[in-house]
Amino acid sequence: MNAEILLHFLIFPGGLFAVVFGLLLVSMERIVVARLQGRVGPPIYQNMLDVLKLGFKEVTIPSDAANAFFFRVAPVLGFAGMLAALFLLPIGGVYDGVGANSDLIVLLYLMALPAVSHIIGGSASGSPYSTYSVSREVVLMFAYEITFILVLFTVAYAAGGGREAVFSLKSIAVYQMEHGSFALDWKMWPALAAFVIFMLATLEVPPFHIAENDADVMDGYLMEYSGTQLALFEVTHALKLLLVVSVFQLFFMPGFESGSVLLDLLWYLIKTVTIVGSIALVHAVMPSFRVEQGFKFLMIVPLGLALASLLLVLFV
To answer: What is the mean pLDDT of residues 112-126?
Structure first.
């Protein structure tokens, strides 16, 4: 059993599979955005090459870093959180997940760790650009995390038939396989739309490319990072992309179990690539908000949609 757990954590669906597939998804997003904007874009393996190259670069710590210890620890925090979160998630017909009764709550905390690592690392770097970036990250994180919490409780109560909250990821998937995907339930449509906006915000995709906007804060919280530390941030972003898309599938379209692991895995991969392609489309055509615009939008539109869906599930 311990060997099986280790295999799932280090090889599939977390670990090696998640890192390679996540980096390929990031490269695919870059290619789609480039083609839509009339550019060629990088080769599909570009992000893997970038990470490998960074692994051989020197790691430098700013001489004026506010806290060298937190500067070093921050990249590891986000990376470890994403690996743990992907280990929790069930994949229909392929992997049952951990199966704990409250793993949905654990997922809530783990999904916030990349943003927390940005805040810690940026604050510890001593760079003014990082400081500006961190202040924006905090503002946006406050807004979109509230939306995610409301969507999470909406899904939990929907999986309990509106009578009780179910905080088991496996139970949420099983309920939809037996009663139909939440994406087909009109009461869940506002929550689905709210989660789509949350995805764009937490992945910092336009119109929410604010905290790391090259036009005014350069590389933002990554300004002083180099070598393996910067590589860890790049891999963490790839893992987060895979995680957020996988959570979207689990919450609203877990699919079915065909009885064939290969077919179910292929269906999961197709859905993941399709959703990332849709994110790339938004990325290519949308401008970015200013920080106050982004905050106001997140506190009104997705928050209102998520709350409406929760009330519908509880009282209709």
So the answer is: 91
